[in-house]
Amino acid sequence: MSTAADLARFFWQLAPQAKNSLLSESSRREMTHARWTDSWTPLAPQSYGLGAISAKFEDWEHVGHSGGFLGYVTRTAVVLEQGLAVSCLTNAVDGMSHLWLDGALGILKRFKADGAPNAALRDWRGRWWSAWGPSDLVPAGDKVLVGVAAATNPLAKAAEVTVTSPDQGRISQAGAFASFGEPAALIRDDGGSVTGVRLGGGRLAREADLAAEMVGRYDS
């Protein structure tokens, strides 16, 4: 019985560069050194060392293992080069722990590339809703990413907003369905709080506000 945090700590101790570990450095290197490939896996290509699974998310190589018990399934990965240990636990035997772990690595990888968010973008954040579902505004570096909340990797090729003033911006990177080149704006109430977002021709609102609007329009 354990927690995600404890599993991450334990697996990090299996990294060759860990300062404290139950095993010698040579033993840890044997565990993380790929010795044979599992060519029949339905997941991304992976290989095995002496007790650990080696795999890759994009160009981030990691080692770790899955874990399961009736009603639960987990996946833990240590990205040796980045000094990261991530563990994903689900309370369902069909939980998508492998896919969600990749999603977590995708988010971390994006922040590695773009850096910490600029403080001036602090209002461009949060989960916002339209009739099509939720979108997440995520500041990263000097841009705002529009994450797809329903995706296992929510920041993969996310639309990007370049902010030009405190409440105005432009969609500077996007796919064909995401209003490339169109304006973006924050909507505020009389007290100055952000109550909505405009992206191109669409308006996003807080979940409760959208629910009340939908009920008012369509409930008969």
Show the helix and strand layout.
Blueprint: H1 4-12, H2 25-32, E1 36-38, E2 46-48, E3 53-57, E4 60-69, E5 72-79, E6 84-90, H3 97-114, E7 126-130, E8 133-140, E9 143-148, E10 159-165, E11 168-173, E12 183-188, E13 194-199, E14 202-205, H4 207-218
Antiparallel strand pairs: 1-2, 2-3, 3-4, 4-5, 5-6, 7-8, 8-9, 9-10, 10-11, 11-12, 12-13, 13-14
What does this structure look like?
By secondary structure, the protein is α+β, with helices and mostly antiparallel strands. Helix content is 21%, strand content 38%. The protein contains four helices and 14 strands. It has helices at residues 4-12, 25-32, 97-114, 207-218, and strands at 36-38, 46-48, 53-57, 60-69, 72-79, 84-90, 126-130, 133-140, 143-148, 159-165, 168-173, 183-188, 194-199, 202-205. The strands form two sheets. It has an eight-stranded antiparallel sheet. A hairpin with a 4-residue loop joins strand 2 and strand 3. The chain is elongated. The mean pLDDT is 94.
Determine the fraction of residues in helical runs and give it as a percent range. Answer: 10-25%
Per the principal axes of the C-alpha atoms, what is the gross shape? elongated
Discrete helix count: 4
Cα(first) to Cα(last) distance is: 49 Å
Tell me the structural class. Answer: alpha+beta
State the order of secondary-structure elements, H for helix, E for strand.
Answer: HHEEEEEEHEEEEEEEEH
Strand arrangement within the widest β-sheet reads: 7-8-9-10-11-12-13-14
Query: Any idea what the radius of gyration is?
Result: 21 Å
Whole-number mean pLDDT: 94
